[in-house]
UniProtKB/TrEMBL annotation:
GO terms for molecular function: DNA-binding transcription factor activity; transcription cis-regulatory region binding. It comes from the Bacteria. InterPro entries: Homeodomain-like_sf, HTH-type_TetR-like_transc_reg, HTH_TetR, Tet_transcr_reg_TetR-rel_C_sf, TetR_C. This is TetR family transcriptional regulator. Residues 13-73 form the HTH tetR-type domain. Gene3D superfamilies: Homeodomain-like (1.10.10.60), Tetracycline Repressor, domain 2 (1.10.357.10). It comes from Nitrospirillum amazonense. The keyword Transport does not apply. Residues 36-55 bind DNA. Pfam families: TetR_C_11, TetR_N. Keywords: DNA-binding, Transcription, Transcription regulation.
Amino acid sequence: MSGPTQTVDKRVERSKAKVLAETYRQLVQSGIAGVSVDEVSRISGISKTTIYRHWPSRSALLIDACSRLGGTPVAPDTGSLQGDARALLSHLAHQLQTANWGSVYPSIIDAAERDGELSTMQAALHKTFMAPFEAIIERAKAKGEIPPDRLTNDVVALLVGPFFFRRWFAKEGMDDRFIDAVIEAAIR
């Protein structure tokens, strides 16, 4: 005999989906500062009482919406650090140049400076996002592709930092030539 099953109320799921979709739309349009629970309620047609039943604070709603910004790739295993880094960095370049993530993430970082809950969420997003990079570097150390005494976080910073610089400061593209140049500079 199986244990009791929890039935999911489809109306609740639809309501939550509407709220998250509108929160995400506001995030993309205006950043975190532009998200208003009043506006989410008005546009989604879901009452504020219902919203606060599922998300006890604006920060909790933002954390849930931000956690859905985009999938993190799994650490590839192409057989070499260069191939693995190229796969991850190609994905990063694509996200930064085409996905809404590239326009929303700066507002997350900004808000995290002043809101403890959002700071915790931003740290978790960062950890999740960097995990595949850390995995390929640790694997490369074990295979002798890079010295074992190289600090993993330093190599990650050398790999991903130039992409954030290009997207948010230089406003320049990130093509295959750039990806290869970054990899070469980071792992030599």
